[in-house]
Amino acid sequence: MASDTRDMLGRTGLTRVDKALSILLAHLGSPDPPVETVPLSLALDRVTAKAVLAPEDLPSHARSTMDGFAVQAADTFGATESMPGYLKIAGEVLMGEEPAFEIRRGSCARIATGGLLPAGADAVVMLENTIPVDETMVEIVRAVGAGTNLIARGEDIGKGCLALPAGHRLRPQDLGLLAGLGIRRVDVYGRISVGVLSTGDEIVPCTDTPPPGKIRDINQITLAGLISRAGARPNLYGIVSDQRDLFFQAVEKAAAENDIVLFSGGSSVGMRDLGEQAIASLGSILVHGVALKPGKPVIIGIAGTTPIFGLPGHPVSAMVCFDLFVTPAIRHLSGHHAGLDLPEPFVLARLARNINSAPGRRDLIRVRLHRNGQGWTAEPVLGKSGAITTLSHADGYFLIDEDSQGLTKDTEVKVILYL
């Protein structure tokens, strides 16, 4: 903790965001998730458990990348529109078939994009650079060098080369690479499970009509979606009472059954807040209170090897803390080696108005993006942390670091996109 002085909510000195994350990751240790083999159709967003080597060359044969004529490049040297070269047409390469003929000096063959290069050919002349003479001969009006307009055998990836490293999250293009190599199944880490509890006697299911004094549960469905997006499996425990025995039992059960536990609504110190006590009873508290707005009262703890997060009850604050702390923990425990270093999708935009910030605190500002003739403009979506519309109406957010007192209108900001 930063100091022994407690604030009005009973927290010791607030921890900076980067420091809180480093403390968390230092206590997670080396991940050891189970390994399973899945078909490519089920492998999207899974994390490779082993390095994948190419079992064959890709492509397995040289192919044309243009419609035109397969040639020996030497036959085209010096060819121009004023002094064309003339080649005999030896045949046509049919799609899906291996050519039964060979290209000799002075000859060529019609070929379409993707067609297998005939033996003897080492280049393709684009159709636009040829003029037909008759069915047996064609003029070449532009020279090509060897290797032009074709992809050679193994040029995409050679047999035995690294196709994908271990700890890599599989994207659609990665699955395409594996499919092209004839790999039908891949070893991946098992999905980690994240237990989710909504706490508070004022919470009712989102399917209910709340009476006065009650509110619908927003966080459980929201957090479940974020967990799935992060590549983990949500395990929902429903709404848990603020009663000490019931709450302690629920948190203990979730910690025993999951790799990560989240509870929302119990992260402010008060008479009915048992979150800190529950974590302390199972393990230890790493961080309580972060220099962040929204999300200041987050609790980060550990029970054995299971991280436990007490997220703020306000939906916006809960989602902000999830993005900054829970997502990195999920990536780490899932074996996603590059997960913490990958850049988030973003755009650069000009700030539409002045924004103040308290020094010593990191502010996360939700924005709506507008495009104009000069690029993007970021319009802050203002509102309290209990207003879910500030997230629903936002296209992304930017950060104001702890050492800044705010930003002025027209400052260029990096807007991390909500996808």
Fold and architecture overview:
There is one protein chain. The chain is of the alpha/beta class. It has four domains: about 15-35 and about 190-330, Molybdenum Cofactor Biosythetic Enzyme, Chain A (3-Layer(aba) Sandwich); about 35-60 and about 155-190, Molybdopterin biosynthesis moea protein, domain 2 (Alpha-Beta Complex), CATH 3.90.105; about 65-150, Molybdopterin biosynthesis moeA protein, domain 3 (Beta Complex), CATH 2.170.190; about 345-415, MoeA, C-terminal, domain IV (Beta-clip), CATH 2.40.340. The protein is built from seven helices and 28 strands. It has helices spanning about 15-30, 170-180, 220-230, 245-255, 275-280, 315-335, 390; strands spanning about 35-40, 50-55, 65, 70, 85-90, 105-110, 125, 130-135, 135-140, 150, 160-165, 185-190, 195-200, 205, 215, 235-240, 260-265, 285-290, 290-295, 300-305, 305-310, 345-350, 355, 360-370, 375-380, 395-400, 405, 410-415. Strands 7-4-6-5-9-8 form a six-stranded mixed sheet, with no helix packed on it. The chain has a six-stranded mixed sheet with strand order 16-13-17-21-20-18, sandwiched between helices. The protein has a five-stranded mixed barrel with strand order 22-25-24-26-28. Strand 20 (about 300-305) and strand 21 form a beta hairpin.
